[in-house]
Amino acid sequence: KVHRASTTAPVNIAVIKYWGKRDPSLNLPTNSSLSVTLSQSDLRTHTTASCSALFPADSLLLNAAPQDVSGARTQACFRELRTLRKQLEDSDSSLPKLATLPLKIVSENNFPTAAGLASSAAGFAALVRAIADLYALPASPTELSRIARQGSGSACRSLFGGYVGWATGTEPSGSDSTAYEVAPASHWPSMRALILVVSAEKKGVSSTAGMQTTVATSSLFRARVESVPSRMQQMEAAIRARDFGAFARLTMRDSNSFHATCLDTDPPIFYLNDVSRAAIAAVNGINSAAGAEIAAYTFDAGPNAVIYYLAEHAAAVAGTFKGILGHVQGWEGQRGRAVEDAGA
Ligand code: DP6
Protein backbone atom coordinates (compact mmCIF):
# COMPACT_ATOMS: atom_id res chain seq x y z
CA LYS A 1 0.00 0.00 0.00
CA VAL A 2 1.18 3.50 -0.87
CA HIS A 3 0.11 6.49 1.24
CA ARG A 4 0.22 9.84 -0.54
CA ALA A 5 -0.38 13.60 -0.07
CA SER A 6 0.21 16.62 -2.34
CA THR A 7 0.60 20.32 -1.71
CA THR A 8 2.06 23.51 -3.16
CA ALA A 9 4.20 26.25 -1.64
CA PRO A 10 4.88 29.71 -3.09
CA VAL A 11 8.14 31.53 -3.82
CA ASN A 12 8.86 34.43 -1.44
CA ILE A 13 11.14 37.40 -2.08
CA ALA A 14 12.56 39.16 0.97
CA VAL A 15 12.29 42.93 1.32
CA ILE A 16 14.28 42.78 4.58
CA LYS A 17 16.96 40.22 3.86
CA TYR A 18 18.10 37.22 5.85
CA TRP A 19 21.91 37.26 5.58
CA GLY A 20 23.98 35.67 8.33
CA LYS A 21 23.54 32.72 10.69
CA ARG A 22 24.19 32.54 14.39
CA ASP A 23 23.82 28.75 14.12
CA PRO A 24 24.65 27.28 10.70
CA SER A 25 23.35 23.78 11.40
CA LEU A 26 19.88 24.93 12.52
CA ASN A 27 19.83 27.92 10.09
CA LEU A 28 19.26 30.34 12.97
CA PRO A 29 19.63 33.87 11.60
CA THR A 30 21.51 36.89 12.92
CA ASN A 31 18.58 39.15 12.06
CA SER A 32 14.84 39.00 11.48
CA SER A 33 13.63 39.23 7.88
CA LEU A 34 10.41 39.92 5.99
CA SER A 35 9.18 38.78 2.60
CA VAL A 36 6.40 39.19 0.10
CA THR A 37 4.88 35.96 -1.18
CA LEU A 38 4.50 35.73 -4.94
CA SER A 39 1.21 34.57 -6.37
CA GLN A 40 0.81 30.80 -6.15
CA SER A 41 -0.48 30.53 -9.70
CA ASP A 42 2.71 32.06 -11.04
CA LEU A 43 5.59 30.80 -8.96
CA ARG A 44 5.29 27.74 -6.82
CA THR A 45 6.57 24.26 -6.13
CA HIS A 46 4.12 21.38 -6.28
CA THR A 47 5.14 18.37 -4.19
CA THR A 48 3.74 14.90 -3.67
CA ALA A 49 5.00 12.91 -0.69
CA SER A 50 4.34 9.19 -0.46
CA CYS A 51 5.53 6.40 1.76
CA SER A 52 5.39 2.66 1.39
CA ALA A 53 7.11 -0.51 2.51
CA LEU A 54 7.50 -1.18 -1.23
CA PHE A 55 9.98 1.69 -1.68
CA PRO A 56 13.63 0.65 -1.37
CA ALA A 57 14.81 3.85 0.36
CA ASP A 58 14.02 7.56 0.83
CA SER A 59 14.13 9.39 -2.52
CA LEU A 60 13.53 12.86 -3.95
CA LEU A 61 12.86 13.90 -7.55
CA LEU A 62 12.96 17.58 -8.53
CA ASN A 63 11.66 18.35 -12.02
CA ALA A 64 12.17 14.66 -12.79
CA ALA A 65 15.86 14.69 -11.74
CA PRO A 66 16.92 12.53 -8.76
CA GLN A 67 18.33 14.57 -5.85
CA ASP A 68 20.58 13.56 -2.99
CA VAL A 69 18.55 13.04 0.19
CA SER A 70 21.53 12.27 2.42
CA GLY A 71 22.32 15.95 3.06
CA ALA A 72 21.94 17.21 6.61
CA ARG A 73 19.16 19.66 5.68
CA THR A 74 16.83 17.15 4.05
CA GLN A 75 17.63 14.64 6.77
CA ALA A 76 16.78 17.18 9.49
CA CYS A 77 13.34 17.78 7.92
CA PHE A 78 12.66 14.04 7.53
CA ARG A 79 13.78 13.35 11.11
CA GLU A 80 11.64 16.08 12.70
CA LEU A 81 8.53 15.05 10.77
CA ARG A 82 9.05 11.33 11.50
CA THR A 83 9.44 12.14 15.19
CA LEU A 84 6.10 13.97 15.20
CA ARG A 85 4.42 11.09 13.35
CA LYS A 86 5.92 8.59 15.79
CA GLN A 87 4.44 10.55 18.70
CA LEU A 88 1.00 10.35 17.05
CA GLU A 89 1.36 6.61 16.43
CA ASP A 90 2.47 6.04 20.02
CA SER A 91 -0.59 7.89 21.32
CA ASP A 92 -3.07 6.08 19.02
CA SER A 93 -2.34 2.46 18.20
CA SER A 94 -5.06 2.35 15.51
CA LEU A 95 -2.97 4.60 13.24
CA PRO A 96 -0.97 2.99 10.43
CA LYS A 97 2.76 2.85 11.15
CA LEU A 98 4.11 5.32 8.60
CA ALA A 99 7.00 6.90 10.51
CA THR A 100 9.42 4.10 9.68
CA LEU A 101 8.46 3.65 5.99
CA PRO A 102 10.70 4.95 3.18
CA LEU A 103 9.56 8.30 1.77
CA LYS A 104 9.31 9.23 -1.90
CA ILE A 105 9.12 12.96 -2.66
CA VAL A 106 8.28 14.22 -6.15
CA SER A 107 8.55 18.00 -6.71
CA GLU A 108 7.89 20.19 -9.73
CA ASN A 109 8.47 23.92 -10.07
CA ASN A 110 5.90 25.59 -12.30
CA PHE A 111 8.35 28.36 -13.21
CA PRO A 112 10.92 27.79 -15.93
CA THR A 113 14.27 26.76 -14.53
CA ALA A 114 15.56 29.42 -16.90
CA ALA A 115 13.91 32.05 -14.70
CA GLY A 116 17.02 31.71 -12.53
CA LEU A 117 15.00 31.95 -9.35
CA ALA A 118 16.18 30.40 -6.14
CA SER A 119 13.69 27.65 -5.52
CA SER A 120 14.97 26.24 -2.24
CA ALA A 121 12.45 28.29 -0.25
CA ALA A 122 9.35 27.01 -2.04
CA GLY A 123 10.98 23.59 -2.36
CA PHE A 124 11.60 22.93 1.33
CA ALA A 125 8.30 24.54 2.34
CA ALA A 126 6.37 22.24 -0.01
CA LEU A 127 8.40 19.19 1.06
CA VAL A 128 7.69 19.80 4.73
CA ARG A 129 3.98 20.47 4.26
CA ALA A 130 3.50 17.49 1.93
CA ILE A 131 5.05 15.11 4.48
CA ALA A 132 3.10 16.76 7.34
CA ASP A 133 -0.11 16.16 5.34
CA LEU A 134 0.92 12.58 4.52
CA TYR A 135 1.45 11.98 8.24
CA ALA A 136 -1.78 13.85 9.14
CA LEU A 137 0.18 15.92 11.66
CA PRO A 138 -1.82 18.48 13.62
CA ALA A 139 1.16 20.89 13.26
CA SER A 140 0.47 24.62 12.75
CA PRO A 141 2.15 26.64 9.97
CA THR A 142 4.37 28.12 12.71
CA GLU A 143 5.53 24.65 13.77
CA LEU A 144 6.08 23.63 10.13
CA SER A 145 8.07 26.84 9.55
CA ARG A 146 10.44 25.79 12.35
CA ILE A 147 11.06 22.52 10.50
CA ALA A 148 11.30 24.05 6.99
CA ARG A 149 13.85 26.57 8.32
CA GLN A 150 16.23 23.67 8.88
CA GLY A 151 15.95 22.79 5.18
CA SER A 152 16.69 26.35 4.04
CA GLY A 153 16.34 29.45 6.17
CA SER A 154 14.18 31.39 3.73
CA ALA A 155 11.86 28.36 3.34
CA CYS A 156 10.23 29.09 6.71
CA ARG A 157 8.63 32.19 5.17
CA SER A 158 6.96 30.15 2.38
CA LEU A 159 4.63 28.38 4.86
CA PHE A 160 2.51 31.54 4.96
CA GLY A 161 1.03 33.70 2.20
CA GLY A 162 1.09 37.47 1.87
CA TYR A 163 3.55 39.50 3.97
CA VAL A 164 5.59 37.23 6.19
CA GLY A 165 8.12 37.90 8.94
CA TRP A 166 10.72 35.52 10.32
CA ALA A 167 11.75 36.29 13.89
CA THR A 168 15.42 35.72 14.80
CA GLY A 169 14.41 34.29 18.14
CA THR A 170 16.73 33.93 21.12
CA GLU A 171 16.50 30.22 22.03
CA PRO A 172 19.63 28.19 21.15
CA SER A 173 17.30 25.34 20.10
CA GLY A 174 15.62 27.60 17.52
CA SER A 175 12.17 26.90 18.95
CA ASP A 176 11.25 30.60 18.68
CA SER A 177 12.90 31.23 15.30
CA THR A 178 9.75 30.82 13.21
CA ALA A 179 7.76 32.65 10.56
CA TYR A 180 4.64 34.71 11.26
CA GLU A 181 2.03 36.47 9.16
CA VAL A 182 2.40 40.26 9.04
CA ALA A 183 -0.63 40.68 6.74
CA PRO A 184 -2.47 38.43 4.28
CA ALA A 185 -2.11 39.10 0.53
CA SER A 186 -5.71 40.40 0.50
CA HIS A 187 -4.60 43.28 2.77
CA TRP A 188 -2.81 44.92 -0.18
CA PRO A 189 -4.29 43.36 -3.33
CA SER A 190 -2.79 45.89 -5.75
CA MET A 191 0.82 44.85 -4.96
CA ARG A 192 2.63 43.53 -8.05
CA ALA A 193 6.05 42.00 -8.63
CA LEU A 194 8.01 42.02 -11.86
CA ILE A 195 10.98 39.69 -12.10
CA LEU A 196 13.71 40.78 -14.46
CA VAL A 197 15.72 37.78 -15.47
CA VAL A 198 19.18 39.17 -15.99
CA SER A 199 20.84 35.78 -15.95
CA ALA A 200 19.46 32.29 -15.64
CA GLU A 201 22.87 30.92 -14.72
CA LYS A 202 23.44 29.39 -11.32
CA LYS A 203 24.90 31.94 -8.94
CA GLY A 204 28.64 32.01 -8.35
CA VAL A 205 28.58 32.08 -4.56
CA SER A 206 25.68 30.27 -2.89
CA SER A 207 23.77 32.15 -0.20
CA THR A 208 24.74 29.50 2.34
CA ALA A 209 28.48 29.96 1.71
CA GLY A 210 28.30 33.70 1.04
CA MET A 211 26.57 34.62 4.27
CA GLN A 212 29.06 32.59 6.32
CA THR A 213 31.99 34.46 4.78
CA THR A 214 30.24 37.79 5.34
CA VAL A 215 29.67 37.00 9.04
CA ALA A 216 33.32 35.97 9.41
CA THR A 217 34.95 38.89 7.59
CA SER A 218 32.74 41.97 7.10
CA SER A 219 32.90 44.82 9.59
CA LEU A 220 29.94 46.55 7.89
CA PHE A 221 27.88 43.46 8.70
CA ARG A 222 27.66 44.39 12.39
CA ALA A 223 26.20 47.78 11.51
CA ARG A 224 23.68 46.09 9.22
CA VAL A 225 22.55 43.68 11.94
CA GLU A 226 22.09 46.60 14.35
CA SER A 227 19.98 48.52 11.84
CA VAL A 228 17.58 45.69 11.01
CA PRO A 229 15.29 45.71 14.10
CA SER A 230 14.16 49.30 13.52
CA ARG A 231 13.86 48.68 9.78
CA MET A 232 11.68 45.63 10.51
CA GLN A 233 9.38 47.75 12.66
CA GLN A 234 9.13 50.45 10.00
CA MET A 235 8.49 47.86 7.29
CA GLU A 236 5.71 46.20 9.26
CA ALA A 237 4.15 49.62 9.87
CA ALA A 238 4.45 50.55 6.16
CA ILE A 239 2.71 47.31 5.16
CA ARG A 240 -0.05 47.75 7.75
CA ALA A 241 -0.62 51.33 6.52
CA ARG A 242 -0.30 50.30 2.84
CA ASP A 243 2.28 53.09 2.52
CA PHE A 244 4.01 52.18 -0.75
CA GLY A 245 6.52 55.05 -0.56
CA ALA A 246 7.83 53.86 2.81
CA PHE A 247 7.71 50.22 1.69
CA ALA A 248 9.75 51.11 -1.42
CA ARG A 249 12.38 53.19 0.40
CA LEU A 250 12.93 50.50 3.05
CA THR A 251 13.05 47.72 0.44
CA MET A 252 15.69 49.47 -1.68
CA ARG A 253 17.78 50.51 1.33
CA ASP A 254 17.77 47.03 2.73
CA SER A 255 18.78 45.48 -0.60
CA ASN A 256 21.60 48.02 -0.92
CA SER A 257 22.71 47.41 2.66
CA PHE A 258 22.83 43.65 2.05
CA HIS A 259 24.85 44.05 -1.18
CA ALA A 260 27.18 46.51 0.56
CA THR A 261 28.04 43.85 3.15
CA CYS A 262 28.66 41.43 0.28
CA LEU A 263 31.16 43.86 -1.25
CA ASP A 264 32.72 44.31 2.21
CA THR A 265 33.21 40.54 2.50
CA ASP A 266 36.74 39.15 2.06
CA PRO A 267 37.06 38.03 -0.70
CA PRO A 268 34.31 40.35 -2.00
CA ILE A 269 31.06 38.90 -3.31
CA PHE A 270 29.53 40.56 -6.39
CA TYR A 271 25.95 39.55 -7.03
CA LEU A 272 24.92 42.61 -9.05
CA ASN A 273 26.15 43.13 -12.60
CA ASP A 274 25.85 45.96 -15.14
CA VAL A 275 22.30 44.96 -16.11
CA SER A 276 21.30 44.93 -12.41
CA ARG A 277 22.74 48.43 -12.03
CA ALA A 278 20.84 49.54 -15.15
CA ALA A 279 17.64 48.24 -13.52
CA ILE A 280 18.42 50.30 -10.39
CA ALA A 281 18.95 53.38 -12.57
CA ALA A 282 15.67 52.70 -14.39
CA VAL A 283 13.75 52.49 -11.08
CA ASN A 284 15.37 55.73 -9.92
CA GLY A 285 14.37 57.31 -13.26
CA ILE A 286 10.78 56.11 -12.94
CA ASN A 287 10.55 57.42 -9.38
CA SER A 288 12.00 60.84 -10.19
CA ALA A 289 9.71 61.22 -13.19
CA ALA A 290 6.73 60.35 -10.97
CA GLY A 291 7.94 62.62 -8.16
CA ALA A 292 7.35 59.74 -5.70
CA GLU A 293 8.45 56.17 -5.11
CA ILE A 294 6.15 54.13 -7.31
CA ALA A 295 8.66 51.32 -7.89
CA ALA A 296 11.13 49.46 -5.65
CA TYR A 297 13.94 47.10 -6.60
CA THR A 298 15.44 44.30 -4.59
CA PHE A 299 18.12 41.70 -5.42
CA ASP A 300 18.86 38.37 -3.75
CA ALA A 301 22.09 36.40 -4.13
CA GLY A 302 22.24 36.97 -7.90
CA PRO A 303 21.81 39.65 -10.58
CA ASN A 304 18.04 39.23 -11.21
CA ALA A 305 15.91 42.16 -10.11
CA VAL A 306 12.52 41.93 -8.45
CA ILE A 307 10.57 45.16 -8.93
CA TYR A 308 7.59 45.85 -6.68
CA TYR A 309 4.90 48.32 -7.74
CA LEU A 310 1.15 48.86 -7.41
CA ALA A 311 -1.33 47.86 -10.12
CA GLU A 312 -2.27 51.50 -10.78
CA HIS A 313 1.33 52.16 -11.82
CA ALA A 314 1.66 49.15 -14.10
CA ALA A 315 2.00 51.26 -17.23
CA ALA A 316 4.67 53.52 -15.75
CA VAL A 317 6.67 50.72 -14.13
CA ALA A 318 6.23 47.44 -16.00
CA GLY A 319 5.64 49.38 -19.23
CA THR A 320 8.93 51.25 -18.85
CA PHE A 321 10.86 48.05 -18.21
CA LYS A 322 9.30 46.35 -21.17
CA GLY A 323 10.20 49.37 -23.29
CA ILE A 324 13.81 49.35 -22.08
CA LEU A 325 14.19 45.64 -22.51
CA GLY A 326 12.75 45.69 -25.98
CA HIS A 327 12.50 42.03 -26.51
CA VAL A 328 10.27 40.62 -23.85
CA GLN A 329 9.32 37.02 -23.69
CA GLY A 330 7.34 36.08 -20.86
CA TRP A 331 4.80 34.58 -18.91
CA GLU A 332 2.71 36.84 -16.86
CA GLY A 333 0.27 36.34 -14.13
CA GLN A 334 -1.57 38.20 -11.51
CA ARG A 335 1.22 38.98 -9.10
CA GLY A 336 4.45 37.54 -10.38
CA ARG A 337 5.83 38.29 -13.78
CA ALA A 338 8.99 36.97 -15.25
CA VAL A 339 10.49 38.92 -18.05
CA GLU A 340 13.12 36.98 -19.86
CA ASP A 341 16.07 38.24 -21.78
CA ALA A 342 16.94 41.44 -20.04
CA GLY A 343 19.34 42.34 -22.78
CA ALA A 344 22.23 40.61 -21.04
C1 DP6 B 1 19.59 36.66 -0.15
O1 DP6 B 1 17.58 30.68 2.65
O2 DP6 B 1 18.94 30.31 0.55
O3 DP6 B 1 17.70 35.25 -0.55
O4 DP6 B 1 19.49 29.08 4.93
O5 DP6 B 1 21.65 28.67 3.78
O6 DP6 B 1 19.52 27.83 2.75
P1 DP6 B 1 20.17 28.91 3.61
O7 DP6 B 1 20.07 30.27 2.80
P2 DP6 B 1 18.87 30.85 1.94
O8 DP6 B 1 19.28 32.39 1.89
C2 DP6 B 1 18.46 33.36 1.31
C3 DP6 B 1 19.20 34.66 1.24
C4 DP6 B 1 18.51 35.77 0.48
C5 DP6 B 1 17.70 36.67 1.41
C6 DP6 B 1 16.37 36.14 1.90
O9 DP6 B 1 15.69 35.34 1.21
O10 DP6 B 1 15.97 36.58 2.99
From TrEMBL:
Pfam family, one: MVD-like_N
GO process annotations (BP): isopentenyl diphosphate biosynthetic process, mevalonate pathway; sterol biosynthetic process
Mvd1 C-terminal domain segment(s): 193-344
Keywords, comma-separated and alphabetical: ATP-binding, Lipid biosynthesis, Lipid metabolism, Lyase, Nucleotide-binding, Steroid biosynthesis, Steroid metabolism, Sterol biosynthesis, Sterol metabolism
Gene Ontology terms: cellular component: cytosol
Substrates-to-products reaction catalysed: (R)-5-diphosphomevalonate + ATP = isopentenyl diphosphate + ADP + phosphate + CO2
Stated name of the protein: Diphosphomevalonate decarboxylase
Phylogenetic lineage: Eukaryota, Fungi, Dikarya, Ascomycota, Pezizomycotina
